[in-house]
Amino acid sequence: MPHKLDLRSGTPVWSAYRAPKVPVERLTRDVKADVLIVGMGISGAMMAEALTRDGHSVICIDRRGPLKGSTAATTALVQFEIDQPLTKLSHIIGTDAARQAWRRSRMALFNLRGRTDELGIECRMQGVPSLYLAGNKLDAAGLRKEAEARQQAGIAATFLSHAALHDAFGIDRAAGILSHDNLALDPRKLTAGLLNIALARKARFYAPADATAVENHRQSVTIATSSGPMITAKHLVLTTGYELLDIVPAVSHRIISTWAIATRPQLSRIWPRAAMIWEASDPYLYMRATSDGRVICGGEDEDFADEARRDALSPQKTKRLEEKLNRIFPLLDTTAHFAWSGAFGATGSGLPIIGSLPGHPRVHAVMGYGGNGITFSQIASEIVSASIAGGRDADATLFGFKA
Ligand SMILES: Cc1cc2nc3c(=O)[nH]c(=O)nc-3n(C[C@H](O)[C@H](O)[C@H](O)COP(=O)(O)OP(=O)(O)OC[C@H]3O[C@@H](n4cnc5c(N)ncnc54)[C@H](O)[C@@H]3O)c2cc1C
Fold first, then answer.
1. Whose CA is nearest to atom 15 of ligand 1?
2. Of 226, 251, 243, 215, which is closest to residue 363 (Cα–Cα)?
3. What is the DSSP letter of 372?
4. Residue of the nearest CA to atom 35 in ligand 1?
């Protein structure tokens, strides 16, 4: 597992919008807290808000600074629909577990929406439908079975035939599944909003501060930082994205490269209901709209992590994304006004790994991989905060490290 990655390149669309500043201090002396969170992206922000809400004293550190990792590059289609179709996940982990993972994802989005409203965070969050199009992973017959499997799990899903898809959305594909209540949002505004709420509750933020080693004691954990000071806490939460500390066990996953573009705000109307659109393909193409009418389109994934290779391919990938978007919606202006790329992690099952490390009950790791990373960050904040409060989330085993 890489300890340090060049997480992203290019200019993500979010730079067009202002995000609140998150003030940080320099770490110049040893400090203590109930909980230390390493990593100040969306996962660390959700964790900091949840833990300060529970009354814990919290310190957050980041080797780069808040919002400077993968979170700045995400396209932020926050979906309950897990990248791994329910029918396929059932073959990997069994029907009951797969249904429960899907249901928990769905609940996570309701919880995230309620949480954001309750906290009054302005992050342009909108509930949007989504369209899952037939592709090389699931054809029309596969999509029909997938829609039935979701319905049997209690998750609404409408199968659209070729004709129904064309009538409703003007898209020429073999079939689709229409779902509701996914979320489109601005990830920097959400992350900064959550961090600033934690700060108002007396959390302390230090950056740049690089966690280099972890020492376990019976009642506490001590973390060494590259600049010298030590941090002692009753619990350590690692929300370090795709970069992991040595103490985290190797799990089956891969780091790949992905690309995205965003257009100028469109003069003509976006497709009906600005539904998120993604394909049952591997790799898949996906798209969403921003609240001011830009179109974000991503995909073109490649199975390597080398940054130099990733950057060299960027002009070609930008062109391909423009062309693919144009093929689906010929009337849109698909010229890329923003183009960026990033490292992207994926596990075989498509599920995250969340929980205390085997043999280290005070060290909790959040590995929210894949295209549902933000949904999984919400689930992680629920599972880890329950554990630190002395309880046990009902899905802790489903998502936990396997001993
Ligand atoms: C192009 C792209 C598109 C994506 N699209 C989507 C999408 O549509 N929907 C979705 O849900 N997800 C998507 N994702 C995934 C999503 O962006 C990630 O799951 C999410 O941003 C991860 O957040 P994080 O807080 O875990 O990691 P990060 O934002 O990377 O934060 C981790 C932080 O930890 C810090 N850190 C690491 N190691 C150390 C250390 N040793 N000491 C101190 N600090 C450390 C890093 O500096 C970093 O700031 C996409 C990702 C990419 C790249």
1. 373
2. 215
3. T
4. 39
**pLDDT tens digits for 307-361?**
899 999 999 999 999 999 999 999 999 999 999 999 998 788 899 999 999 999 9
Q: CB neighbours (10 Å) of residue 253?
A: 17
For residue 249, the model assigns a pLDDT of 84
Whether 191 is in the pocket of ligand 1, judged by its Cβ within 6 Å, is no
Q: Going by C-beta distance under 8 Å and a sequence separation of 6 or more, which residues neighbour residue 22?
A: 40, 66, 67, 192, 195, 196, 199, 205
**Phi and psi angles of residue 155, each rounded to the nearest 5 degrees, phi first:** -110, 120
| Cβ contacts of 312 within 8 Å, gap of 6 or more | none
Q: What spacing in Å lies between the alpha carbon of 167 and ligand 1's midpoint?
A: 38
CA-based nearest residue to 286, from 332, 325, 322:
325
Atom 17 (ligand 1) nearest CA = 74
For residue 301, give the nearest of 261, 252, 336, 344 by alpha carbon.
Answer: 344
Q: Does the beta carbon of 44 lie inside 6 Å of ligand 1?
A: yes
CA 372 to ligand 1: nearest atom: 11
Taking the CA atoms of the chain, what radius of gyration do you get in angstroms? 21
DSSP 24-62: -B---S-EEEEEEEE--SHHHHHHHHHHHHTT--EEEE-
Does residue 72 sit in helix, strand or coil? helix
Q: Tokens 């009906």 correspond to what residue? A: 272
Beta strands in 162-238 (DSSP E): 175-184, 204-206, 211-216, 221-225, 230-238
Residue 9 has pLDDT above 90, yes or no: yes
Tokens linked to 159: 């199968």
Query: Residue 101 corresponds to which tokens in the numbers above?
Result: 């993972």
DSSP letters for 232-247: EEEEEEE--TT---TT
Give the C-alpha separation, 147 to 8, whole Å.
35
Q: Is 395 in the pocket of ligand 1 (CB under 6 A)?
A: no
Phi, psi of 11 (to 5 degrees): -120, 105
